[in-house]
Amino acid sequence: MNKMTVKDVDLKGKKVIVRVDFNVPQDDNLNITDDNRIRAALPTIQYILKQQPKKLILMSHLGRPEGQVVESMRLTPIATRLEKLLGQKVLMLDDCVGDKVKNAIEKSSETVVMLENLRFYKEETKNNPDFCKKLADLAEIYVNDAFGTAHRAHASTEGIAKCIKAVAGFLLEKEITYLSKATGNPQKPYVVILGGAKVSDKIMLVENLMNKADTLLIGGGMAYTFLKALGQNIGNSILEKDKLDVAKNIIEKAKQKNVKLLFPVDHLVVKAIDQPETKKVVKDIEDGWLALDVGPETVKQFKDVLAGAKTIVWNGPVGMFEKEEYASGTKAIAECLASLKGATTIIGGGDSAAAVAEFKLEDKMSHISTGGGASLEYLEGKELPGITALADKK
Ligand code: AMP
To answer: Where are the domains of the chain?
Structure first.
């Protein structure tokens, strides 16, 4: 990675401000129901603490308070959980900028300080220069460890990086290291599995990954617009009529670039989503039926390709996996990736990450991205403002 990280700067005696992603799910009583995002930031936090900084100031957003104070979106429960995980006191402040905050940080005997929800200020998402300066005023070094918001040019993810020395934390570094394998010089054969509901969400992704990949395996709802474009009957399966030309164009481009495209050759079809009892596997979809998962022959063909791959990127489930009845294709793909030895397996955030978690195969993948939108944009070849803004390695 060509960006500086926490390891490239001297943190001893410095005030260090770290953007983390503590946007964790909570129940109605504000109990944290999944603290993975807090745990994921611990390596960076613990490393910084070992360097004996003067202060370690943490900042995050939580939910969408839209520029005003929302009591239920305070970060207090998160600071409490962090205290437990760190085994160290965390000073929780009730604001994130201003003299009161500055003084409280200076006067506190605690090293670790948690600022209040950044999005209580509309200036945060607007990347307001004054607000950026106020955040930067709190510290001497800025660390970004929040990949999930790196595609947004917000004050705490981009603007602040222009005011003080800005480096990456370990989580961000890992994301870039793996995702850049997919867009840079991937070890070949390089296979991309694409699924999900719509072609329209994945056009730029397909176009960009086609420049590097040897084979694209296309499943899920998006496959049916392609199959329709190829002249097949798709019954009532999900179709984006206005994307038929785009699909044809992608098929044509793949031919020119010598990229193999594989589509489902059999399908799990039902009469209606809420009639799983009607499900059957077919090669040709008849009128009145809709496909909600790939069939076993497709799984076999996909697995044969995956078995020889050295780099694999997976973005989007190959069926409606949220319903158990339509999950077997997605489960088989996840299990196949988990079983591969010697291949780098990169799971894009969002639904494919959710699928891998559901099947409890998380520790069997090389990398599962923590950012749905951010990993999609990275793999589309876009620059992420939160990464661009960090200092380059010398
Ligand atoms: P995306 O957010 O674009 O990755 O889409 C994920 C969604 O696609 C999931 O909610 C799946 O249920 C849905 N999906 C996958 N396969 C199909 C299918 N054959 N028909 C309809 N929806 C599907």
So the answer is: 6-174, 184-379
Sequence-distant (6+) residues with CB within 8 A of 394 are none
Position with higher pLDDT, 182 vs 318? 318
Q: Whose CA is nearest to atom 3 of ligand 1?
A: 196
Q: Which run of H or E residues covers position 281?
A: strand 280-282
Q: Which CATH architecture has domain 6-174?
A: 3-Layer(aba) Sandwich (3.40)
Which residue's CA lies nearest to atom 1 of ligand 1? 196
Say which amino acid occupies 36. N
CA of 221 to the centre of ligand 1 (A): 5
Residue the block writes with tokens 């603490």: 49
Is 288 in the active site? no
- Residues 25, 386: Cα–Cα separation, whole Å: 23
pTM here is 0.89
Digit-coded pLDDT (tens) for 295-340: 999 999 999 999 999 999 999 999 999 999 999 999 999 999 999 9
Residue at 337: amino acid letter: L
CA distance 223 to 237: 10
**Cα-Cα end-to-end distance for the chain:** 12
Indicate which atom in ligand 1 lies nearest the CA of residue 352.
4
pLDDT score of 379: 92
Atom of ligand 1 nearest to the CA of 223: 19
Cβ-based burial of 128 (10 A; exposed 0-12, middle 13-18, buried ≥19): middle
Contact 212, 182 (CB under 8 A): yes
- Is 188 a residue of the active site? no
Residue 67: active-site member: no
One of 15, 37, 74, 81 is an active-site residue; which one? 37
Q: Among 224, 290, 320, say which to mutate for ligand 1: greatest number of ligand atoms within 8 Å of CB.
A: 320
Residue 97 CA to ligand 1 center (angstroms) comes to 41
CATH of domain 184-379: 3.40.50.1260
